[in-house]
Specification:
Elements: E1 2-6, E2 12-17, H1 20-23, H2 29-42, H3 102-118, E3 122-125, H4 135-146, E4 151-155, H5 160-167, E5 172-176, H6 182-186, E6 190-194, H7 195-205
């Protein structure tokens, strides 16, 4: 697949051939969904906790006598039906981690990139950098490239000035290409890929490098 290459001013300066084994694979929505669910599940801490009736700090003494009051018979106030009592069947700490083979995870990324490429949501630029952390200049730059659409900017390596420039923009996010993931790919309208970042993607998603 041949796509145009733009400069930071938004002008086309050439073309580049996107690897077919990454950007032209058959899209498998089920695999992408599985990878997305796995990523979201693995991000959960699982530290939620409610106290059962045996854990609340209240007296265990019988509330009132068994007979003669005309009221229902009760033991202590720890029962879940009382305010301040325990919680019945409440959440307990657990591990939400889901496992997924690496080959399946990488294939899901290829499917996502192929779907984005087919919908013209991938924008390749020759380079993407700024002289210093300036949010206003970054907003003007993104307006020229993608307009009002949300954008995921892939970088080949850490660029502190670029990351700080994008940090306060609500519709943009930077991500190192080696940390590519299904959630960020699917949650933005456009993906901006500098040619240096494209080389990083090819290094670990190319079929010839699959291990």
């Amino acid at each position: 697949m041949e796509v145009p290459v733009h400069n930071m001013a938004g002008d086309q300066i050439g073309t580049v051939e996107l690897p077919a084994d990454i950007f032209e694979v058959e899209v498998n929505p089920g695999l992408m969904h599985q990878a997305y669910v796995r990523q979201m599940a693995n991000a959960r801490l699982g530290t939620h906790k409610t106290k059962t009736r045996g854990e609340v700090n209240r007296t265990k003494a019988k509330w009132y006598r068994q007979k003669g009051t005309g009221r229902a018979r009760h033991g202590s106030r720890n029962a879940p039906i009382f305010v301040g009592g325990g919680v019945a069947h409440g959440p307990q700490p657990r591990d939400y981690t889901k496992r997924m083979p690496r080959k399946m995870r990488r294939q899901a990324l290829r499917c996502a990139l192929s779907a984005l490429a087919a919908d013209d949501q991938i924008l390749v630029v020759d380079r993407f950098s700024v002289d210093g952390p300036k949010t206003r200049e970054m907003k003007a730059l993104l307006d020229r490239l993608v307009g009002e659409q949300s954008a995921l900017i892939l970088v080949a390596e850490r660029d502190e000035a670029l990351e700080k420039s994008v940090r306060n923009l609500p519709n943009a996010r930077t991500l190192r290409a080696s940390y590519l993931n299904i959630r960020d790919l699917l949650s933005h309208d456009r993906v901006i890929i500098p040619q240096a970042a494209l080389s990083v993607i090819e290094s670990f998603l190319g079929q010839s490098d699959e291990r």
